[in-house]
């Protein structure tokens, strides 16, 4: 039986690892001590379609133990890297004992570019990108809930049967899995949706409440239009990852509230408690993935000569507010901005309209 390790089990990694465990996979999780103490009591998995499973007696690998071992003792067949984008560089140092030349590394980050350092560190391994479309929340200690739709999508490997086998063995009710032959376009399509993460973090409200307010939707739509202009310049054709095509999404978002409610009932079909991963980061005073999301659009835009002023301003605001928060810590820098979190829709609209 193939062996799997989920490295950096937080929300996504724990959901993935526990799903694999209850399917009978040989899987071990590497996580922080606080996460382990919760998961070790057993995990309840549920989703928005009311699927349910229990995963008991998960296997864990301790980071300290790992460092004392060599790949010939502990290397796995599949390593799922589920740390945040900014955790990848450190993780690359820590995963060394888990990787031998047969190990396939699966990068499960949002945004663009986090697989690049992995490929540089392991040029002879198969490194595949994975797109995670759904949201995972911890409803209570050890209860992980998939709050929205979509298939976890794995990049097609050069050896096609490798990813095909993986997809068919994993695909299940709680963890729908699919394969993609055009991962770059798919990741841009997912990135389009993730541009709203920053607004969700700044607004400091659940995704559903944010989408019910046109002011927030207009800001998200403006950033999406910039992304669509950049991706067009790059010659990408974005696949449909919502009920409407990628280039129609901004128009739907800009509709008045009463029309939006009628047209976008699928977009609003998210659990009322869903918040984006950036909301969790900001709320826990952790670094955000802003540079890999809106920052990636801004960087690519600058590279191909497409202006992205709204994304630039939102990146600056998220960074300033993260800085302002860390200034509350002893020895932190002083805040440089007037806006404070929660930021209202009208404040954000004024910010992105500035000339
Ligand atoms: N949450 C969601 O619903 C979704 C998330 N995503 C994406 O999936 C990726 C993972 O997100 P998510 O699961 O939310 O992130 P989490 O922060 O919940 O999980 C990552 C976990 O890895 C731990 N970690 C980081 N570095 C190491 C290390 N070197 N050794 C051991 N543990 C480590 C972190 O601990 P610590 O925080 O202490 O560093 C954290 O517990 C992100 O790119 C995110 O954007 C995509 C879709 C939905
Ligand atoms: C699923 C989605 C789009 C929103 O929760 C997400 O990717 C995230 O939270 O980072």
TrEMBL record:
Q: What is its EC number?
A: 1.1.1.169
| Gene Ontology biological process | pantothenate biosynthetic process
Which Gene3D superfamilies does this chain map to? Answer: N-(1-d-carboxylethyl)-l-norvaline Dehydrogenase, domain 2 (1.10.1040.10), NAD(P)-binding Rossmann-like Domain (3.40.50.720)
Which InterPro entries does the UniProt record give? 6-PGluconate_DH-like_C_sf, 6PGD_dom2, ApbA, KPA_reductase, KPR-Related, KPR_N, NAD(P)-bd_dom_sf
What's the catalysed reaction? (R)-pantoate + NADP(+) = 2-dehydropantoate + NADPH + H(+)
Q: SUPFAM superfamilies from the entry?
A: 6-phosphogluconate dehydrogenase C-terminal domain-like (SSF48179), NAD(P)-binding Rossmann-fold domains (SSF51735)
Q: Which residues form the Ketopantoate reductase N-terminal domain?
A: 5-158
What name does this protein carry?
2-dehydropantoate 2-reductase
| Organism of derivation | Paraglaciecola polaris LMG 21857
Q: What is the lineage of its organism?
A: Bacteria, Pseudomonadati, Pseudomonadota, Gammaproteobacteria, Alteromonadales
């Amino acid at each position: 039986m193939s062996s799997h390790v989920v490295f950096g089990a937080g929300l996504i990694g724990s959901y993935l690892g526990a799903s694999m465990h209850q399917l009978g996979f040989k899987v071990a999780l590497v996580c922080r001590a606080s996460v382990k103490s919760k998961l070790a009591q057993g995990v309840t998995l549920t989703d928005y379609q009311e699927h349910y499973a229990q995963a008991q007696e998960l296997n864990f690998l301790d980071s300290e133990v790992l460092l004392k071992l060599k790949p010939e003792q502990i290397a796995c067949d599949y390593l799922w890297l589920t740390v945040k984008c900014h955790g990848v560089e450190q993780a690359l140092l820590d995963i060394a004992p888990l990787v031998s030349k047969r190990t396939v590394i699966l990068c499960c980050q949002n945004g663009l570019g986090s697989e690049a350092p992995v490929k540089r560190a392991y040029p002879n391994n198969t490194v595949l990108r994975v797109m995670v479309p759904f949201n995972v929340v911890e409803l209570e200690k050890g209860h992980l809930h998939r709050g929205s739709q979509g298939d976890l999508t794995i990049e097609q490997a050069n050896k096609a049967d490798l990813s095909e086998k993986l997809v068919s063995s994993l695909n299940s009710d709680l963890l729908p899995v699919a394969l993609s032959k055009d991962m770059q376009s798919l990741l841009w399509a997912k990135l389009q949706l993730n541009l709203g993460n920053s607004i969700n973090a700044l607004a400091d409200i659940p995704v559903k409440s944010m989408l019910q307010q046109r002011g927030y939707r207009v800001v998200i739509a403006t950033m999406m239009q910039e992304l669509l202009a950049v991706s067009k310049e790059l010659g990408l054709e974005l696949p449909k990852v919502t009920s409407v095509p990628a280039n129609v999404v901004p128009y739907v978002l800009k509709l008045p509230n009463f029309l939006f409610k009628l047209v976008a009932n699928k977009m609003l079909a998210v659990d009322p408690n869903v918040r984006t991963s950036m909301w969790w980061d900001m709320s826990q005073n952790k670094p955000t993935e802003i540079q890999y999301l809106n920052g990636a659009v801004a960087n690519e835009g600058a590279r191909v000569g497409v202006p992205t002023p709204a994304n630039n301003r939102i990146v600056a605001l998220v960074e300033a507010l993260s800085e302002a928060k860390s200034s509350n810590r002893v020895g932190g820098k002083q805040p440089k901005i007037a806006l404070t979190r929660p930021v209202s829709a009208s404040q954000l609209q004024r910010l992105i309209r500035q000339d």
